[in-house]
Amino acid sequence: MNAFSPKTPVVFEPDTANPRQLRDAFAKFATGVTVVTCAGENGPLCITANSFSSISMDPPLVMWAPSKGSRRFPLFRVAERFAIHVLSADQSDLCWACSQDAHALREFDHLVDEAGVPLIPGCLARFVCRHVACHEAGDHVIIVGEVDKVEMSEGDALAFYAGKFGQFAQQ
Length: 171
What we know:
Elements: H1 19-26, E1 31-32, E2 34-40, E3 43-49, E4 53-57, E5 60-64, H2 73-77, E6 81-86, H3 92-100, E7 111-112, E8 118-119, E9 125-137, E10 140-152, E11 157-161, E12 164-168
Antiparallel strand pairs: 1-11, 2-3, 2-6, 4-5, 5-10, 6-9, 7-8, 9-10, 11-12
């Protein structure tokens, strides 16, 4: 087969008895990676998310969508303030740690803003938000935040594709 021949696609109907196929199909979309943080009763909380998107410029709105099945979900659903950190290519260890442990920031440098929201340094962008809405969406909830403060810097982005980390490099 030469490089210009079409590949035979896999066609299927989503089936809750076999969610792996649908998960694999969703993984064909390369995304950036974020860590969302909020204050918790026992210190800073964090969770990884690639379900982040901007929504509106006026007012400045963003969204992310945690799984209802996550043990951290109830804590993030009620957080009045949170920060979404767009990770740089050299932050995969942080990303991995936050995906495994809600309290992983104890092991990483971070600051806390005047509202108690944990802030991770060295990210490509940070959006400090006020919670404005939640929308049910199947086994996830879309959390909408109004952006109060932004910080950004240059660098290469941490990427996620087909279950693996990579990077988007600037050209």
